[in-house]
Amino acid sequence: MKKIFLLAVFSVTLGLSLAIRVYAEPLDWKRLHGEADAKSIQQAQEEAAYVPSASALYVLGLVYLNAHRDNDAGKAFERMRALLPESFEAQWGLAEVWRRQHDLDNAEPVLEGLVEKNPDFAPAFISLAYIRYTRMDFKECVRLAYRVVGMGKEKVDTSNYTRAYLLVAGGKGMLAHYGGPVAKIANGTAVLPYLKKAQNLQPDSPAVLFGLGSFYFLAPGVDGGDKKKAQSYLEMAVEKDPRFADAYVRLAQLYKINGDQARYEESIKKVKEIDPQNALFLDMENKECKFICISLER
Q1: For residue range 13-26, what is the model confidence (pLDDT) as tens digits?
Q2: What is the C-alpha R_g of the chain?
Q3: Does domain 15-101 have CATH number 1.25.40.10?
């Protein structure tokens, strides 16, 4: 009887110890982002099922995001928030899901609060920078991305640090497009160097390949534009990530210019299957060309 009592006490003590640990220990988000980039969905699912800790659920949500399984990511972050109601990482995860689902009005205020309260949490700055880009606030997009660059790569996971360089490049490209002669020179000449910085960090990243492909597609020939290079990079991007909607849109525009109607239609079909509300796709379909669509300008 005494042994049973002691065992019961030990079990309760262990349970309380684990509960306190779950609620008290801050997450090492940088390490967890790196882990998620190296894990398969099956690995992340098994680990979260075996020990459904906040860390395991966070990694599971990140792995789902990498696979474009946004609904599943949202469920993982909700479970994580149930364990850690005050977790800013869980709040970010849900806001990032909303952003990817084009619910910017809900995502934006959450992210604004996160960057104010957690000035060292790079993922929130990156998500908010993407929203600012979509809303065509390119100066703010660049400013937020610079904040992440300024944190230093020793304090940011590799993927988000790479995204920061890509957002600086993308934002400056749009500032050059819409600016006067001085802005075109100041911003336009900075685009490729920042893309190269991103390439040095993650040369095989679909996002990097997309950034380079977009540059070579959109830049004038005198500034380094090269349609063959563009096609090569964009095709590599969708080969590595078959659900990369933005890359399919740029490829569709490129195929249209080349007179390849069949591949143009195939790319458009892919976008409609993957993400019919994609901002770049709607921009082209509605003939607004806010984000530049060369196939409609020629």
Answers
A1: 444 344 434 444 57
A2: 22
A3: yes
